[in-house]
Amino acid sequence: MTTTYRQALREALREALAKDERVFLMGEDVGAYGGCFGVSLGLLEEFGPERVLDTPMSESAFVGAGIGAALGGMRPIVEIMTVNFSLLALDQIMNNAATLRHMSGGQLGVPLVIRMTTGAGRQLAAQHSHSLEGWYAHIPGLRVVAPATLADARGMLWTALLDPDPVLLFEHGALYNVSGELEPDAGPVDIDTAAIRRPGRDATLVAYGGTVRTALEAAGRLAADGIDAEVIDLRTLRPLDVETVLASVRRTHRLVVVDEGWRTGSLSAEISARAAEFALYDLDAPVERVCTEEVPIPYAKQLEDAALPRADDVVAAVRRAVS
Amino acid sequence: MNVKERERLLRQMIRIRRFEERCVELYSDSKIRGFMHLYIGEEAVAAGVLPALGPGDAVVSTYREHGHALALGIPMEAVLAEMYGRTNGCSRGRGGSMHLFDAGRRFYGGNAIVGGGLPLAVGLALADAMQGKALVTACLFGDGAVAEGEFHECLNLAALWRLPVLFCCENNFYAMGTALRRAQAQTDLALRASSYGMPAWPVDGMDPVAVTEATERAVESIRGGAGPCFLELRTYRFRAHSMYDAERYRAKSEVEEWRQRDPIPRLTESMRNDGELDDAALAAIESEVEEELAAAIAAAEAGAPEPVEGLTRFVYAERRP
Ligand SMILES: Cc1ncc(C[n+]2csc(CCOP(=O)(O)OP(=O)(O)O)c2C)c(N)n1
Ligand SMILES: [Mg+2]
Fold it and tell me: What GO molecular-function term can you cite, just one (chain A) (predicted)?
């Protein structure tokens, strides 16, 4: 079945709304407008205004209301238009969603899913393009997932909804129109493990979300030169499936991390640190990182392209590592 | 209001007052640590609001919540043991004075982010409404929260969706050292709230009878499906913001004026004048409270400290599907 990332996400929402009457979708323009990126198009008509709620532009209030509704027995899916806007709800996410279970000594749980768009590549400039999922991955009490494939776009939501704790689901904006084949019976997938998207012997490429495609493209080019790179898709950013990464490094002895976040204090830094802590003697070359340049994402195409991790950069990094 | 009800209010206020007076001593003895915000002076609000809620109604509170927790019926020993950081504390030692919780009584915390509890209250009310339950969520917060964006977002959302939220603003006229008039151009908070399209009115927060009546009226309207209500409960804290401060931000004479309106002697006198209370009855209340306190202290002292081996518990659910 040919489908798109956007349609796969929509199917997941439809399945969740149909399967569990505690589930509802709420956010800015998710209903009448169909979602700012069209993900929830048609769901208002199908499920009605009690299940698909358009909210005012009050990120803190509706994200917090999602947390409260989860405490009250519902299974809310809250959509925030982009990760940049999630900063207006950061208080609720950090100080309530992530802490209530602990502060209450285990009495409360927040079974909530917050979806938001992340990432650059669409010339949307510095207030709509950032990759801040690494910040959220810093926070104990949250789970953070990043579907990079159609199957994950289709399958992660339901598993996230079953989870007793808050799950942040990051949709990469440049993936919405990506199309491909999806099994007609595609369904829920785990949200605990990283996946090897391309096996290889010579180097380990670690990526997630939007950079999985970049890493796969680079691996394809390297293969033409006889360099066989393994590509790992982290899938879940918190808690990290470090074992899958380390096991690969122990086979390939080289690690290149591709991260659309900024290098400083990033997920790529975390992966590198884990390799240094637990696989240092397995490495035959320094860890390489391909990250976004340390600038707010610029508007002009050539500037934006230059700021983001490119397949060329990944190819060069792998060559350095294997040389 | 009949004698029994007035006596119940008096007893509750005395109970909260004596509890906190003892907490001050325990704090000085280093039995209680961290931030501790006393409610002394404001007891009429808790004594009036909490018992006027019905079974199953939810409560969201602030860091100044000892009185709310006690008036809702969380056992005194569970509250005190929490402040001791013990296993028998109502948050198993993870919360302390500012983060009392009781899921069974639907007490959703002690929130120490000013304004941070309002969105939770809106969501709890939304969940109850979606599940067809005729329940009310009471949300208590201070005058300081009115300066936060979350306050305005939430009043609008609750009114827009006609959610069953009782907004209880405990206006003690100060946010730490900032007088309300130094923070707000319009200090009539009920007026501010009414602009969101909900009934809102000021209440004498030093009079537990007035608070009770206002709460009952508001709860009835909310339960009837009329949407949220806002009570501006005008009250005053007699002591420092937290345990100690120099109180340079207010005049001693102002504190003294408000102390003249202390709800405990005020109700005591009024009941005496009406022949509803004599010395023996008052002494009985005091000694019952003293007994409860002694038992709470013994239980807190006897509680086991939470084991360090369990440090990272309660970050994620211990069982997942
Ligand atoms: C968002 C936020 N900003 C600042 C503080 C620090 N702070 C704690 S209590 C307080 C004053 C709050 O006053 P009010 O809401 O009137 O409550 P009261 O203490 O008078 O009961 C401040 C500024 C905080 N806890 N949260
Ligand atoms: Mg105040």
Answer: magnesium ion binding
Query: Which ligand 1 atom sits nearest the alpha carbon of residue B115?
Result: 1
Interface list for B 15-74 with A (CB within 8 A):
58, 60
Q: Which domain holds residue A17?
A: 2-181
B151 lies within 8 A of chain A by CB: no
CATH assignment at residue A104: 3.40.50.970
Is the domain of A170 the same as that of A289?
no
* End position of a domain, from candidates A181, A210, A235: A181
Do A45 and A130 lie in one domain? The reply is: yes
* Min Cα separation A158/chain B (Å): 12
pLDDT digits over A128-165, tens only?
999 999 999 999 999 999 999 999 999 999 999 999 99
Cα A20 to Cα A146: distance, rounded to the nearest angstrom: 23
Q: B residues 239-278 near A, CB within 8 Å?
A: none
| Whether this model's pTM surpasses 0.90 | yes
Q: Which of B114, B143, B180 most suits a substitution to test ligand 1, by most atoms within 8 Å of the C-beta? A: B114
Q: Among A129, A152, A181, which residue terminates a domain?
A: A181
Residues of chain B with pLDDT under 50: none
- Domains belonging to chain B, first-starting first, are 3-310 (3.40.50.970)
Query: Coil, helix or strand for B10?
Result: helix
Say yes or no: A121 and A216 in one domain.
Answer: no
A141 close to B (CB below 8 A) = yes
* Ligand 1 pocket member B66 (CB < 6 A): no
pLDDT at B32: 96
- The pLDDT assigned to B56 comes to 98
Number of domains chain A contains: 2
The pLDDT mean for chain B works out to 97
A138 & A287 share domain: no
Do residues A159 and A207 both lie within one domain? Answer: no
Query: A8 and A188 in contact (C-beta within 8 Å)?
Result: no
At B47, which amino acid appears?
A
Note whether B271 and B208 are within 8 A (CB). Answer: no
- Whether residue A45 is found in the same domain as residue A176: yes
Probe target for ligand 1 pocket from B35, B176, B233, with the most ligand atoms within 8 Å of CB: B176
